[in-house]
Amino acid sequence: MTDTVLSLEGIEKRYPGGPAGAVEVLRGASLRLRQGEVVALVAPSGAGKSTLLHIAGLLDTADAGRVVIDGAEMTRLGDATRTAMRRAQIGFVYQFHHLLPEFTAAENVILPQLANGASRKAAAARAADLLARVGLQNRGGHRPAQLSGGEQQRVAFCRALANAPRLLLADEPTGNLDPQTSDQVFGVLMDLVRETGLSALIATHNLELAARMDRILRLDAGKIATAGAP
Ligand code: ADP
């Protein structure tokens, strides 16, 4: 048995190019994420962090290599199985909150649970619990436009965790916030991840935030170069 939650093995990805030819973004990127580990994925903009996260999160497919989640090979699954797997096992947080504007904060956390087969009562209870954990117990009835940027992002964390996934993937999760709010909201995310025992891979180009995680992985020339513990 293994306590590896996510394993990426030799991931390659190229985009068909414009005049300059194809862009080879990933050239054999490999990494492993253990149960409960929070790992920073660090690289400059354009290095392929989002591409790697989308492949790990089953939102995109690699040209070569393997994606293994909890010991199960994801690489050749059909679309329906990938969607079900993603919904149940993977939480995704983006730089922008992507909350549904016409729904309240609580509804944004309830809806993915209904899609995953939860009862409305159980989903509402879990949404209330998650929102309270990030300090938004009094904001459940607000729509995204009525929340601050930091609050919107905290709701997005709750939505990502709504179905109690095994794995959290975050792409510059505080990148849209001012430095002070970013610092604080990142702390909320770390507390939430630690409390739930989730494994998380968090892309950032903020080295201070990266230093607060268990390990830093650097993406360089399409491969992972380990930088060791901060
Ligand atoms: P990062 O997240 O590190 O900023 P990305 O994964 O977004 O990097 O992008 C890596 C490279 O791949 C960039 O050069 C980008 O222009 C290119 N790229 C990303 N998505 C596409 C796409 N759909 N088609 C063509 N090129 C793309």
Structural write-up:
By secondary structure, the chain is α/β, with parallel strands linked by helices. It has one domain: 3-Layer(aba) Sandwich (Rossmann fold). Helices cover 34% and strands 29% of the residues. The protein contains 7 helices and 10 strands. The chain has helices at residues 49-56, 79-89, 105-115, 120-133, 149-161, 179-196, 207-210, and strands at residues 4-18, 21-34, 38-42, 64-69, 72-73, 90-93, 167-171, 199-204, 215-220, 223-226. The strands form 2 sheets. A 6-stranded mixed sheet has the order 6-7-8-3-9-10. A 4-stranded antiparallel sheet has the order 2-1-4-5, with helices on one face. The two termini are 28 Å apart. The model has no long low-confidence stretch (mean pLDDT 93). Bound molecules: adenosine-5'-diphosphate. Adenosine-5'-diphosphate is lined by residues 15, 23, 25, 43, 45-51. The site of adenosine-5'-diphosphate has 11 residues, from strand 2 and helix 1.
